[in-house]
Amino acid sequence: MRRIFIGADHRGFKAKEALLPILKKLPDIEMVIDCGPIKYDENDDFNDPAILVCRNIIKDLDHNFGVLICGSSFGVCIQANRFKQIRAVNPLDEERAKLGREHNNANVLCLSADQLKPDQLEAIVKEFFTTKYTGKERYERRNQRLDKEV
């Protein structure tokens, strides 16, 4: 069973609230943990929920996943990818969400509240969490290199 940690900034707050019940209905999900914000705050920063979500994910990489939402999805994605063993992707459609899971074993889904409509957000989330990592040798080799110092 998997756990999903979700967080957003003020621009992603509304989308986060809308996705919470959708995430809870996905198959193989033990629980969904809201890492905030709990209320809208126009002066918050995307960094804080991204850091909190990623710190929780790395406690159990086999079972923990994340969803981060900000206006563009870029800020939360950049912040998340600063953590070793976090592979955050920011797809704008279902196909790219699927590839992020299949090829990159992505464990954080970063979403753009500004560019994606509610039905698109839902479709991307469902695709991401129902797609399995292929584990092919070439993908595994590439993914392991992501945590190496350059």
Explain this structure.
With 150 residues, this protein is α/β, with parallel strands linked by helices. The chain has one domain (2-145): Ribose 5-phosphate Isomerase B, Chain: A. Helices cover 41% and strands 18% of the residues. It is built from 6 helices and 5 strands; from the N terminus they run E-H-E-H-E-H-E-H-E-H-H. It has helices at residues 13-24, 47-57, 74-80, 94-102, 118-130, 137-145, and strands spanning 2-8, 29-34, 64-70, 88-89, 108-112. The chain has a 5-stranded parallel sheet with strand order 2-1-3-5-4, sandwiched between helices. Helix 2 crosses helix 3 (74-80). The protein is globular and about 45 Å long. The N and C termini lie far apart (34 Å).
Strand order of the largest sheet: 2-1-3-5-4
How much of the sequence is in beta strands? Answer: 15-25%
**Gross morphology:** globular
CATH superfamily: Sugar-phosphate isomerase, RpiB/LacA/LacB
Q: Give me the Rg, rounded.
A: 14 Å
Low-confidence parts lasting 5 or more residues at pLDDT below 50?
A: none
CATH topology, anyone? Ribose 5-phosphate Isomerase B, Chain: A
Give the oligomeric state of the chains in this entry, treating copies of one chain as homo and distinct chains as hetero.
single chain
Largest sheet: 5 strands, parallel
Number of strands: 5
CATH arch. level architecture: 3-Layer(aba) Sandwich
SSE inventory with pairings:
Layout: E1 2-8, H1 13-24, E2 29-34, H2 47-57, E3 64-70, H3 74-80, E4 88-89, H4 94-102, E5 108-112, H5 118-130, H6 137-145
Give a quick precis of the structure.
With 150 residues, the protein is of the alpha/beta class. Helices cover 41% and strands 18% of the residues.
